[in-house]
Amino acid sequence: MLTVVFLAGFILYQWKYLPASVASISFFLPTVRGPASLVRWHESASSCLQEAPVIPVTRKSLWLAIEELLHTELFVNKTASLLSGAVRIPTEVYDVMGPVGEDPRWEAFAPLHEYLLQAFPLIHMKLQLTKMNTYGLAYVWEGSDGALKPLLLTAHQDVVPVDPATISNWTYPPYSGHYDGTRIWGRGSADDKNGLISILAAVETLLEHDFAPARTVVLAFGFDEEATGQQGAKQIGRYLLDIYGENAFAMLVDEGDPIEDTYGAPFARPAISEKGYFDLQIQVSAPGGHSSVPPPHTAIGFLSSLIAAYESGAPRSHLTRGSAAYTHAQCLAAHAPRLPPNLRADIRAAHSSDAALRRAEAALFAEDPALAAGGRTTVAVDVVWGGVKSNALPEGAGVVVNHRVAVDSSVSALKDHAVAVLRPVADALNVTLVAFPDDGDTLFSRREISSVARAGTVTLSDAFGTALEPAPVSPTDSAQWKVLAGTIRAAWGAPHPGLDRALNKPASVQVPLQGEAEPDIVVVPSLLAGNTDTQFYWALTPHIFRYNHYYARDGPADGSIHTVDEVCEAEGFVGMVKFFVGLMLNADESRDM
Ligand SMILES: *[C@@H]1O[C@H](CO)[C@@H](O)[C@H](O)[C@H]1NC(C)=O
Ligand SMILES: *[C@@H]1O[C@H](CO)[C@@H](O)[C@H](O)[C@H]1NC(C)=O
Ligand SMILES: *[C@@H]1O[C@H](CO)[C@@H](O)[C@H](O)[C@H]1NC(C)=O
Ligand SMILES: [Zn+2]
Hints:
- The chain folds into three domains: 2-46, no CATH class; 60-273 and 471-507 and 518-589, Zn peptidases (Aminopeptidase), CATH 3.40.630.10; 276-462, Alpha-Beta Plaits, CATH 3.30.70.360.
- Helix content is 35%, strand content 16%.
- The chain has helices at 2-17, 22-28, 36-44, 60-70, 73-87, 109-119, 121-126, 193-208, 233-244, 299-312, 324-335, 341-349, 354-367, 369-374, 411-429, 479-491, 570-589; strands spanning 128-132, 136-141, 151-156, 183-185, 217-222, 251-254, 260-262, 265-268, 271-274, 276-285, 289-290, 378-386, 392-393, 396-405, 431-435, 456-462, 522-523, 526-528, 544-546, 567-569.
- The chain has a six-stranded mixed beta sheet with strand order 1-2-5-3-6-19. A five-stranded mixed beta sheet has the order 12-14-10-16-15, covered by helices on one side.
- A hairpin with a 2-residue loop joins β7 and β8 (265-268).
- α5 (73-87) crosses α8 (193-208), α12 (341-349) crosses α13 (354-367) and α16 (479-491) packs antiparallel against α17 (570-589).
- The radius of gyration is 26 Å and the shape is globular.
């Protein structure tokens, strides 16, 4: 069934956007044989196959009507005002907060709820709203066909605090929500009130057009994503699991990376997994005493050797065939016009040449440290303590080492790694290693038989009890991925020339590779280095994507999230609304998910 939707959508797309040509058909249908040059293109792009744009079929006229509306200046202004209003309500969360009902700082969310009530009247009339832990929001838009698994769209209501010392550095006050006709300024405009408001604006717009879904749509908005989601998304996740059960949702889309110009091509990078998280505490204890008669090493001295060894033993990054970074590289070679020719040649040759693979690795990782970090478990020694007095031997010293755990690894593999690296050092230093005693009688926690006297003890532990395994990897050979990627491609650009606005369409990119058909926007599955509220939704569906259909024409791609002058471009923001409208319509028509 989806294939029909998919092809029909593709034909419509061709009809509407492009002169139908053999070149573009061979691009979308890789089995079609074309002239030699097209076959060459297909081979070169074989590791970065792009889904065809997916345009609603039965709701085609609705889609076209909404698309026209979205591209008008009036709609852009109206929607920008909705975001401004949400930004003007500070909903800051802090790392350490008491429970809802006790800590008054949570009350900041009440005015936001009142605002949503008046800003989105149809939603509050037609959808069923349940609040979890007072400020968690779950809206249910009941579909007519109960056999279809619901679509889940999520965002978070909270923002990171503004450091008072930086207020004078903001172009406009951080909670002004100032709209200058092009941009909406302020904390939350890019993380994640744009996600919250674009989802709601998409639903409200569909309601204004009398759309009634066949597939239920559930909207879930946590309120402490920036403080690990314990009070918000965790409670919502439990509630949804109770009501709907495991694997009950067709797919989930949450916040993620925006669209970014990459060597001259716009890359959309929905994340199909998230790295894990582990804060390792390495704590050394050793006898204290007067520092006039010191041992060869104090606790701080032991700790220093352990840190040095641990940093040197950190996992290295490699570009391995089949990894996310490798797929990214193949997409660069296939679609990025400004990629240096040597690098393109190396990436293409990397299929079969190890030497080319190593050269591509060196060039790509030097250029893009995030790409290098994405594939490995990272090690960052972030906190250190020890010693209180210049003439007293320290009895203890310690560090916290932050790790982002590679998607193909695990927290327990990381613990093994820490023991493997630190045990020989501890032995050489004549200190006892006690590894993860809280894990019970596992491989890690077996204490050494300590009948032998030692000069000190080093204890490894989970510093704050916040270990998080890497997220399950969402498949990309799925109907869900086809709908997601196809919607991204369909939502990119203007419906036809002559409209006020060309949402998202960048002026400066999209130089096609010579002689090769180019997709407008390249959709590449990626990994998220950080964590989102989706960690509480793993049981609800295996099809979880973290993605912002946001493109900044002029400003910073990520809208300067978490820092001074956070900003969201109005047209890019409306692009997000367009994406969610398309996603709801396409998901509604699909019968394969
Ligand atoms: C804020 O502006 C002051 C003065 O221009 C500058 O010294 C300081 O580094 C800025 N701080 C931040 C956080 O940008
Ligand atoms: C949109 O807003 C801008 C800036 O506030 C204003 O100059 C423009 O006239 C508005 N356009 C419409 C159609 O309302
Ligand atoms: C280890 O340290 C203890 C306590 O200082 C000491 O008695 C012992 O001889 C040391 N062992 C070695 C092999 O240095
Ligand atoms: Zn966020």
